[in-house]
Design goal:
Blueprint (H helix, E strand, L loop, with lengths): L2 H14 L6 E8 L9 E3 L6 E4 L26 E5 L5 E4 L7 E3 L2 E2 L4 E3 L1 H6 L1 E5 L3 E8 L16 H14 L5 E4 L6 H10 L8 E5 L8 H6 L16 H5 L3 E5 L9 H10 L1 E2 L8 E2 L3 E6 L9 H7 L2 E4 L10 H14 L9 H9 L5 H18 L5 H4 L48 H10 L4 H8 L3 H10 L11 H11 L3 H8 L3 H10 L5
Parallel strand pairs: 11-16, 11-17, 12-13, 13-16
Antiparallel strand pairs: 1-2, 1-10, 3-4, 4-5, 5-8, 6-7, 6-9, 9-10, 14-15
Helix pairs in contact: 3-4, 7-8, 9-11, 13-14, 14-15, 16-17
Length: 519
C-alpha cells in the first residue's frame, strides 16, 4: 500500500481508538479482474456521505496499491450512500443507465438500509459485473498469509489472533463452531504454529468410535486384553506421542471413555487395557464440536477441555469473505487440471447472499458442482444447486427511499432462517428414500454427523441408512486402484474424493492414511 493510503488508514485507526463508532466498509466480492476480489475500501467513522463510482473510493489490501473499481460498466456519476445519526444507510441512485442491484433486487430509485441489514452484509451489484459487500468494520485490515484459512473479515483476523495465542500455550484447546466452519483446519494451524510442529498431529473422529473398542482405540491394549486382541494395540495417545491429538466431534465421545480422557488431562497418564502400569502421555489435546455440551456430557471433562476456547464464526457472519472463498475453489479446480469454467456474476451474487447452513464445506461443494456443469454448458441456477431453498414472496423496493427500512433485504428469497427447509422432529427411517440420503451426504461434505442432522435422524440411524444404500460403499471395500485414481484426481481433498467414490469422508480419510495414500 502506498504512503498516502497508509497514512489514511493510520488516521482512520486513530479515530477509532476509544470510540464505539464503526467504519462503513466495502469489500470486493467479485470483479472482472479476479485478483481484485477481497480488496477493501473504508469510510471514516464520522463520514456521513460516501460517493461510489468508477474512480472512488479507492480499494486495496495491505501491501497493495489502492485503485478505483475501474470497470467502464460502472458509471462516472456516483451512487451516493448517506449514513444518518442512527447508522441507517440511504442509497441515492445516480442519473445513469448503470444497473444497480441491492441484495438481489434491481434498484430503480432510492432505498434505506437498517443497521441490522448492514450488520449482516449487503450485496451491491454494479453494472452487472462488480459485486461489493457493504458491512461494518471495527478494525483495519491486516495481511492474512494463510493459504487455507482465507478471509479479510474482522472475524477471520480475530480467529488468526486466537490461533497464534493458542499455539503459544500448552493448554488443551476447545474449538466451537457449526459444521463446515473449518475446525480441523484451525487445529492444524495451531499445531503448525506451536513448538510441536515437527511432531505428529493425529486426528480422531470420536463419533466413529464404538462403545466396545473405544478405550482400546484411544489408549491401546496389551495382547490378550480382550477377545480378539491377538497383538499389542497402540492407541491414539501413543501414536500422537509428544505431538498433538485432535479429537473431532468430542461431543460424541462414548460415555465409558469420558472419565479415562479426563484422567489423562488431569494427570498426564493413562493405562492401556490389560496393562500392569500407567503410561505417561506428552500429547497436547485439541478438541472440537458443533454441539452444546452443557447437558449430558461429563462436565469435569468439559472444564478440562476448556483450557483455551476458540469460537469459529459461521460463514453468514463473514459474508465479505465469500467471494475470496469462491475464487479459491475455482483456483483449486483449475490447478487440479480441470477444464476452465466460468460462473456468471448472477450466480456469484446469489452465492454471496445465501446464509450457508453448511458453511464453507457446503459452499465448496456447491461451487464444485457448478464448475462441473459449466464445463459443458451454462452453469446451473442457484435454486438447482441449492434445492432446499424455497422461493418466498419478495417486497417491492422499487422507488421508495423507505422501502427497505423494515425489511431484511439482504436475504430476499435466500434466507435460510425463513426459506430453507428446517427439521423440527426426528424423521422416521421409513420416510427417507435413497435419494434423500445421498443428497444429504452430498450437501454436507459426505460427513455422517452433518448429514444425520440435516435429515433429522440419529447418527446410528444414519449409519443404518448408509449400510442399506445400494450406491454408498464402505471405504475399505473400494479397490486400491480406484482409491489411487481418486486421490490422483482430487489430491488431498478428501471431501471431493468421497464425493467421487460415494463413501463417508471421515472413514475414507482414515482408510487412505492406513493404506499410505494420505499423509
Amino acid at each position: 500500500m502506498d504512503q498516502d493510503a497508509e497514512n489514511t488508514l493510520t488516521s482512520l485507526l486513530s479515530s477509532l481508538t476509544g470510540s464505539a463508532q464503526r467504519m462503513l466498509t466495502f469489500t470486493v466480492l467479485w470483479h472482472p479482474e479476479l485478483a481484485r476480489v477481497g480488496e477493501q475500501a473504508f469510510a471514516s467513522p464520522g463520514s456521513r456521505q460516501i460517493a461510489l463510482n468508477r474512480f472512488a473510493p479507492l480499494f486495496g489490501r495491505p501491501g497493495g496499491t489502492p485503485l478505483g473499481l475501474g470497470d467502464r460498466r460502472i458509471a462516472r456519476d456516483p451512487l451516493m450512500l448517506l449514513r444518518d445519526a442512527a447508522d441507517q444507510v440511504t442509497i441515492v441512485t445516480p442519473q445513469s443507465r448503470m444497473s444497480i442491484g441491492v441484495d438481489g433486487e434491481t434498484l430503480a430509485g432510492g432505498a434505506t438500509l437498517s443497521v441490522a441489514a448492514v450488520e449482516r452484509g449487503v450485496v451491491l451489484a454494479l453494472g452487472g459485473c462488480v459485486l461489493l459487500c457493504m458491512h461494518w468494520s471495527d478494525q483495519l485490515p491486516r495481511l492474512n498469509s494463510s493459504k487455507t484459512l482465507l478471509g479479510v473479515s474482522g472475524a477471520v483476523l480475530r480467529l488468526h489472533e486466537s490461533i497464534r495465542q493458542a499455539a503459544g500455550t500448552l493448554l488443551p484447546v476447545l474449538l466451537l463452531g457449526e459444521t463446515g466452519t473449518g475446525k480441523e483446519l484451525v487445529a492444524q494451524a495451531i499445531h503448525a504454529g506451536s513448538p510441536r510442529r515437527d511432531r505428529p498431529l493425529v486426528a480422531v473422529n470420536m463419533a466413529t468410535l464404538s462403545e466396545t473398542l473405544a478405550a482400546a482405540d484411544m489408549f491401546g491394549a496389551v495382547k490378550g486384553a480382550y477377545t480378539g486382541a491377538d497383538n499389542v494395540r497402540r492407541g491414539w495417545f501413543a501414536e500422537a506421542g509428544d505431538g498433538t491429538l485432535f479429537l473431532d466431534e468430542i461431543g460424541d465421545t462414548p460415555g465409558a471413555v469420558q472419565p479415562m480422557l479426563l484422567r489423562v488431562l488431569e494427570t498426564g497418564t493413562y493405562r492401556p487395557l490389560g496393562a500392569a502400569a500407567d503410561v505417561r502421555s506428552g500429547a497436547r489435546v485439541i478438541a472440537a464440536t458443533d454441539q452444546d455440551l452443557g447437558h449430558g456430557y461429563n462436565q469435569a471433562l468439559l472444564r478440562r477441555l476448556e483450557g483455551f476456547v476458540i469460537h469459529l464464526p459461521p460463514l453468514r457472519a463473514r459474508r465479505e469473505d465469500i467471494g475470496l472463498l469462491i475464487r479459491h475453489f475455482i483456483t483449486q479446480w483449475e490447478n487440479a487440471g480441470n477444464a476452465p469454467a466460468e460462473l456468471p456474476t448472477t450466480l456469484i451474487d446469489a452465492l454471496c447472499r445465501y446464509d450457508w447452513p453448511g458453511n464453507v464445506r457446503q459452499l465448496a461443494m456447491v461451487v464444485r458442482r457448478a464448475l462441473i456443469a459449466a464445463v459443458d454448458g451454462p452453469a446451473p441456477a442457484f435454486e438447482v444447486l441449492v434445492p432446499e431453498v424455497v422461493p418466498q414472496a419478495q417486497p417491492n423496493h422499487g422507488g421508495s427511499t423507505g422501502g427497505m427500512q423494515n425489511g431484511d433485504m439482504h436475504t430476499g428469497s435466500l434466507a435460510p432462517g425463513d426459506a430453507a427447509r428446517k427439521v423440527t422432529r426426528r424423521a422416521k427411517l421409513s420416510e427417507l428414500d435413497h435419494d434423500a440420503v445421498l443428497a444429504a451426504l452430498e450437501d454436507n461434505g459426505w460427513q455422517v454427523g452433518a448429514a444425520a442432522l440435516a435429515l433429522g435422524v440419529s447418527r446410528p440411524s444414519m449409519y443404518k441408512l448408509i449400510d442399506d444404500h445400494p450406491e454408498i460403499r464402505p471405504a475399505a471395500a473400494i479397490p486400491l486402484a480406484e482409491l489411487q485414481s481418486a486421490v490422483g484426481a482430487c489430491g488431498d481433498d478428501v471431501v471431493l474424493c468421497a464425493q467421487m467414490l460415494k463413501t463417508p469422508s471421515e472413514a475414507l480419510r482414515r482408510h487412505l492414511r492406513g493404506v499410505g495414500l494420505l499423509a
